[in-house]
Design brief:
Layout (H helix, E strand, L loop, with lengths): L2 H17 L7 H12 L17 E4 H6 L5 H6 L1 E2 L2 E2 L1 E3 H11 L14 H18 L21
Antiparallel strand pairs: 1-4, 2-3
Length: 151
């Protein structure tokens, strides 16, 4: 099944679901509702885009070497035993966090914004444990499952 067939199948399934809540008996009203559904106004055309190429930054091990991250943090953020390479905006966020500065990251979907805050949170917890600090809640993450502000 290609992506367009998948989109059509999802829309058809959703239409059946949306229409399953009511049964319109009067023919004149049912035909008007059917005509509205037939226009496709309740679901937009699929959006197909290619993610831009984000500028590469340092890898996690580089940040450990410059003491921006604890060595144990590098063991958490690796794939198949190799340290992950960050995008430039992720590297900048980690640098801000390690310096104790606040920061805001705005970048495209799929650019790894989550790592911009997960890496500093995990690093802070690892550093606190290594320093013998008492275990406590260090972060509460309220994380949306869908894109915010999409109309």
């Amino acid at each position: 099944m290609d992506v367009f067939d998948l989109d059509n199948a999802v829309v058809e399934d959703y239409e059946r679901f949306a229409r399953s809540f009511t049964q319109i008996r009067p023919e004149d009203i049912r035909s008007q509702v059917d005509a509205l559904y037939a226009t496709g106004r309740f679901w937009p055309e699929p959006l197909i885009s290619i993610n831009p190429h984000y500028e590469r930054g340092a890898n996690i091990q580089d940040l450990v070497a410059e003491r921006s991250l604890h060595a144990d943090t590098a063991r958490v953020f690796q794939i198949d035993g190799k340290p992950i390479t960050l995008y430039r905006h992720q590297e900048q966020a980690v640098a801000k966090a390690s310096a104790g500065h606040s920061f805001v990251v705005t970048t495209g979907t799929g650019s790894g914004k989550s790592l911009c805050f997960f890496i500093p949170i995990i690093d802070a917890a690892i550093r606190a444990r290594a320093a013998g600090q008492k275990a406590r809640t260090r972060a509460i993450i309220i994380y949306p499952m869908n894109e915010i502000g999409r109309a």
